Amino acid sequence: QVQLAESGGGSVQVGGSLRLACSVSGRPSSGHVVGWFRQAPGKEREFVASIQWSLFLSTSYADSVKGRFTISRDLAEQTVSLEMNSLKPEDTAVYYCVAKAPRAGGYGYWGQGTQVTVAS
To answer: Could you tell me the mean pLDDT of each successive run of 10 residues in the chain, 120 residues long?
Structure first.
């Protein structure tokens, strides 16, 4: 079992930066993938970024955030961070930390979410 807890959301002006953190408890294996989804008002949840919970640091990003967001993880601290730069109003959403077990079909573990608001 993996438990996830987000922190670091808030409000920021257009062009600003925020850093989200996800505390990962339990016993994630090297085959787990941890990442972020987001859901804007009236829209479906969408993938943002992911990183493999292993030494290989394989990452993936949605096209909408490439070059602006950076995902990283700290195995010792068991945290995954999302550094968000050059924020736009369309980045406003609830951001969820997620995890996928090895060979799982989807992300079966979700945090409670943290609000990010980008004001124009």
So the answer is: 94 98 91 96 96 86 98 93 97 98 91 96
Q: What is the pLDDT of residue 27?
A: 82
Phi, psi (rounded to 5 degrees) for 106: -155, -175
Neighbours of 61 (CB within 10 A): 19
**CA nearest neighbour of 8 among 18, 48, 97, 112:** 18
Cβ pair 24, 77 in contact under 8 A: no
Q: How far is CA 61 from CA 22, 24, 76, 120, in A?
A: 17, 20, 24, 24
**Could you give the CA distance from residue 69 to residue 25 in angstroms, rounded to a whole number?**
24
